[in-house]
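Continued from yesterday's entry.
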Amino acid sequence: MASILTSAIIVNTKSSVSTYVTTAQGLYDELQTLINNLTSSNFMGDASDGFKDFFNSKATPALVANLTEPGSSITAGLQSMLDSIKEQLLDTVDPQLGDINRDPTK
């Protein structure tokens, strides 16, 4: 079944992506706080240091840089792509096609 892409759909999708980013960042902050508390009081030594290194070098890039970082993450790319679709297709092509459909002699 065909569907019609509208500016409202783009706006709603961008809002959903923003909600995802906010939620993911909040969960990451919560996880980071838990790890900091754990490794500063009850879990210490080389194993703790290795765990912190793993979290900072592997988990943090996966959770922050790749998912939520403004400008370079997957979600930032998605937001940019949605803006491009709206600007290049809906704001430009669609109105031109509408004008041509209204008056094919133009």
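--- second protein ---
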Amino acid sequence: MLTSYLCIMENISVLTDFPLDEQQYYKRITTDVSGHYTIYAGGNYVYICNEKNRIIRFTGKDLFISTVTPSQVEQWLERLHRLYPGF
């Protein structure tokens, strides 16, 4: 059932300069996802940070940060691993 959550991932970008020092601008959604990822939200974007401090940022219509579920995060990670195997 890899349907509705994946289609909201738009404008996917890989960032190398995510300002973790300025965390007051970002809400930490969850930590230690699959033992390797932290998920942040800020503005209209979701940021997924791996343990190497590499960030993938994306947005999408009908994306409500307050309703993100663990299965949704896992589906995001599955898609990102297909797009960026080294992430």
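Strands lie at 10-15, 27-33, 37-42, 45-50, 55-59. The longest strand covers residues 27-33. Will compare against the first tomorrow.
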